[in-house]
Structure formats: structure tokens, C-alpha cells
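Possible regression after last week's pipeline update?

I re-ran a chain I had predicted before the update to compare outputs. Posting the input and the new output here so someone can diff against the archived version. Not blocking, just want to make sure nothing changed silently.
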Amino acid sequence: MSIGLITDEQGLFYTFQSKLPSGEYFEFRPRNPPLNSKPIVDDENGMCFGYSVAQVPGLWQIYDANGVFVRLEEAPLEALLLTLQTSL
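New output (post-update):
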């Protein structure tokens, strides 16, 4: 097994820092963005790397930057306020 460099992998790599003001972002707008989608933005570099569409509360369709469906994502379960040990 050999371990290659990250630059050997296929994909899009960006190594610049964003100079955009807070709340603004950069995106390559897909030709057909998903309906009712909201951008998923990396706060560190100001890049839009995907889109989310709310299905029902707690369930989202996730699309990549090209507008291609990737997967369904659900909200994590909430922690119980009381554990079994504290209630005994």
C-alpha cells in the first residue's frame, strides 16, 4: 500500500484565503441548481461547496457544488436531559 500526496488525488483543490466580508461567499453556480436549495459554505475560505434542501424537519437532501445529489442527511439525536444513572 502506498500513500500519495493530496495533489495526486482527483478533485478540485483551493489553497487561497478568502478576502470576502463576513456573510458573503464565492460559488460556481450550477446550470440547474436544486429547487429551494441553500448554499453550504465553508466559513474559513468563503467557498460554497454544496447545497442543501430541507425535506422535512431534521432531514435534508445534500447536493455537491455541481448540483448533483449526494445523499440524505438527518439531524443527530438529541441527548437526554436525564440519564438512567441520575434518575435512580
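Follow-up from reviewer: compared with the archived run. The mean pLDDT is 75. Marking as no regression found.
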